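Can you please make up a protein's amino acid sequence together with its fold in C-alpha cell form to help me picture the idea?
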Amino acid sequence: MTSAVPSEREVLLDEAGRPAAEYVQGQSHDGPWADALRTISGHPGSTVPLLLDRLPGWAVTTDENLAADLLLAGARSVRYAHHYGWDLALRRPDSDWAAPTLPARLRLVAASTMSAQDLAATRQTAYRPGHPDHGADRATGSVGRLQGLLDGTRYGALLDCSAVVLEGTQVVAAVTVNRHDGTPSRRGPWFTDVFRDPLPRYSGLGTLLLQWVLAHAAEAGETEVGLSVTEGNPARLIFERIGFLHTESTRTVVLP
C-alpha cells in the first residue's frame, strides 16, 4: 500500500451518531485507503455493515480479527503484513555495523546520490515472479514510487542512513529509510524499501544494509526504527535473526 503524508485520524459515526471506528485516510493504488482502522471501544455491535456501507471500494488496513470478518463479507485480501521494531534506546546496535567490510569490487554510497532510474531495474529484479510482493505496487520497480521515497513526498523525508551498494556503476543492493509521518505504531524512521540483486554472490548484502541503518540511526540520535514485511517473505527470518521484535500483524483488504 502507498500513501503520501497522511492526515489526522478520521472518525466514522454510525446511524445514531456514535463513534464506531477511526482510521488514517490515505491513497493506495486501489483508491481511497483507511489505514490503521480500529473499532472504538464500547461501540455496540459489529462495525462490518457500517464499513461496507460507508467505505465501498476502499482499501482497509486493520487487525486480523476485523479483517477476517470483512473477508467473510466479501472483501478481497491485498496484503497480510507483520510489523517489527527496534528500540535503539534499549538495545544499541553493534558498533561494527557502522563500518562494514565489503568485497573489494563493492562500495557503499548514500542513497541520496542516486536517482530513481538508477534503482528501478535492480528493484524489479529483486521482486521477481514468485516473490510474495511481486505484482504489488511496492514491487513494480516503479520509478514514480522510488522517486517519492527519494524526494520524501511518499512517506516523509529520506534519512541519511539510506544507502546503496554499487559494483562499478551498477546498483546491486539498496535500502531507503524515511521519517514516516503515519500512524502512531508506524511513525518515525521506517524502512520503506530494502532489496538486492538475487544472484548468490550478493548474498548477505541485505543484512549488511539493515545493520548499517541501525548503527547510523543510533549514531544520529534516533530512538527507534520500524519496518513491515509481507507474509511469506523470507526476509522476515533475517529481520528476526538480526534482532527486530514483532509488534503487530495487520491485513489489508479491499471492500466490495
